[in-house]
Amino acid sequence: MSEEIISEIEEDLQKERFKKYWKNYGKYISLLIVFIIFSVGGWQIYEFIEKRRNIEASNIFLNILDVSKEDTEKAIEEIDKIKNLPNGYELLIKFQKANLHIKNNQISDAVLLFNQIYQDKSIDQSYRDIAFLLSIMHQYKQENSIAKLDNIISTNEHFAMLAKELKAYILYDDGKIKGAQNILEEILNSPNISQRSNERISNILKTFEKN
Q: Of all residues in the chain, what percent are helix, strand and coil, respectively (each to 5)?
């Protein structure tokens, strides 16, 4: 009997403690629960929206590629209407637009776009380097081109060889034949040179010997 009374007293005390605890901290617990619910739900909503945006952006990009095959001018017009794409697709669209300008022989427009990409520090450096190399491939005469190529040579091993080759062509175009020849020979002696590059540079060096 006494055990039952003690048990009831303990139960009442626990209830009193809980009421007191809830009175002091209940609103904070409620806020925490609401925060957790909204955090989890909000993240799921965000993921859903981002997934949907990426699917829509993918469809837009594929549509641009299809239009590009039929009408390059129309494709450029369609690109100019596009707004607020996710960053990766926005960059792809810019490269595609530059490519369309090249197909239309609008080289200065393409080079301008490539340089805009290169100057955008929010873009990954590798893509910026690609944009600059493409701009140089279509227009050698650019401000600080040698310095920019030297920077790629020293910082980006994936594109260093191409940057060296472009630097050699710029030097050759400026009449600095020996400097161009030295760079091409350096590339030719590289252990990582591809067969196609080896053949191309070997043929270029043969023309130097004739001159």
A: 85, 0, 15
Q: Say if CB 79 and CB 97 are below 8 A apart.
A: yes
Distance in angstroms (rounded) separating the CA atoms of residues 5 and 132: 86
Structure tokens at 37: 């619910």
Percent of the chain with pLDDT over 70: 73
Contact yes or no for 180/169 (Cβ under 8 A) = yes
Residues counted in the chain = 211
* Stated pTM of the model: 0.71
The pLDDT tens digits for 133-173 are 999 999 888 888 999 999 999 998 889 999 999 999 999 88
DSSP 136-149: HHH----TTHHHHH
Handedness of CA 194, 199, 205, 207 (dihedral sign): negative
